[in-house]
Amino acid sequence: MSDNERAAILPTPTRLPPPDRPPVTVSIGTSELARSSVFVSELVSMVNRAYGKGRIGEEEARHRLRAGDERPHRNRVLHIAMRDGQLVGCCSSSLFVPWCGPGCGHWGLLAVDPAAQGSGVAAALVHAAELRLRSAGCSTAGMEFSYHVGDPLSERLLAWYEGPLHYVGPSHQRSGFRICRKRLPARDDAKDTKGGGWLVAAGRLGASSAAQIVLFVRWFVAIWLFMFGVY
Ligand SMILES: CC(C)(COP(=O)(O)OP(=O)(O)OC[C@H]1O[C@@H](n2cnc3c(N)ncnc32)[C@H](O)[C@@H]1OP(=O)(O)O)[C@@H](O)C(=O)NCCC(=O)NCCS
Fold first, then answer.
1. What phi and psi values does residue 108 have, to the nearest 5 degrees?
2. Of all atoms in ligand 1, which is nearest to the CA of residue 116?
3. Cα 97 to Cα 203: distance, rounded to the nearest angstrom
4. Is-contact 26 80, C-beta < 8 A?
5. Domain with 164 in it: what CATH number?
6. Sign of torsion, CA 125 123 55 176?
7. What digits encode the pLDDT tens for the residues 87-126?
8. Is pLDDT above 70 for 190?
9. Looking at 15-24, 77-86, 131-140, which range is the least confident one?
10. How are beta strands 86-94 and 104-112 bridged, if at all?
11. Are 11 and 185 a contacting pair, CB within 8 Å?
């Protein structure tokens, strides 16, 4: 195994919060949170302030939160980071996405309240997302980000994702969309029996699997409904 490969399966490094800040706790959002209009509007406002634009609306936020309810087939969930009772960040994770391939989980919608940035919240969220993917049996994690040469946030993200987080992106550093992957270590001791391990197994079986075909049909119908403005 090469040094790069060995480095790519090391656990995600965690950063200690500054001494004057309480630790961050990360949990999975559920319909209980979706029912709280105060929480939903805080979540939407936090994400949109972090991205500096209207990234999500209340209906999407509720939908993402409800998807985290305990059930065998849950795929995409929303990880919620709290510090001292306050919402400070979020990140989604999916056990299966059509564009990532068999056995490859995915995370996205990483957002941290601007007031809490630079204190380890994103590191805790990515760690939680990767842990969920590993626990469910994913061998790889995928993510994408938009990169602009010279833009300070872009440069910081590139340095972090493709540095200490060990994601592997394109070999060039031109502006554009960077599709990154990371090998996750196997975790025999942490099977996520409630978390949709069958989805990962279905992903591993390949496109001929009946379960995967069902998933593709579901996505196809959702996209079709979305395109025709029904969804
Ligand atoms: C990107 C974002 C999620 C980072 O959140 P954060 O809580 O500030 O990140 P963290 O404090 O956990 O730091 C993560 C890493 O970024 C780096 N970092 C943090 N603060 C930094 C700073 N001020 N300057 C340079 N690098 C910094 C560190 O390398 C750190 O890694 P470490 O934990 O191994 O030390 C946050 O800035 C954000 O919400 N941005 C807007 C939305 C966005 O761009 N999301 C990502 C889309 S792909």
1. -170, -165
2. 7
3. 9
4. yes
5. 3.40.630.30
6. negative
7. 999 999 999 999 998 899 999 999 999 999 999 999 999 9
8. no
9. 15-24
10. antiparallel
11. yes
More confident residue, 166 or 1: 166
Residue 124 contacts residue 112 (beta carbons within 8 Å): no
Cα atoms found within 13 Å of the Cα of residue 73, Cβ hemisphere only: 5
Does ligand 1 come within 6 angstroms of the Cβ of 51?
Answer: yes
Tell me: the pLDDT tens digits for 44-81? 999 999 999 999 999 999 999 999 998 877 999 999 99
Burial of 209 (0-12, 13-18, 19+ CB in 10 A): middle
**Total domains, the chain:** 1
Residue located nearest, by CA, to atom 20 of ligand 1:
118
Dist. CA 2 → ligand 1 center (Å) = 28
Identify the domain containing residue 205 by its residue range: 3-227
* Residue 81 and residue 125 in contact, taking contact as beta carbons nearer than 8 Å: yes
Q: pLDDT tens digits for 76-87?
A: 999 999 999 999
Q: Does residue 164's CB lie within 6 angstroms of at least one atom of ligand 1?
A: yes
Q: Is the overall model pTM greater than 0.90, yes or no?
A: no
Q: Mapped to the 3 state alphabet, what secondary structure does 92-139 carry?
A: EEECCCCCCCCCEEEEEEEEECHHHCCCCHHHHHHHHHHHHHHHCCCC
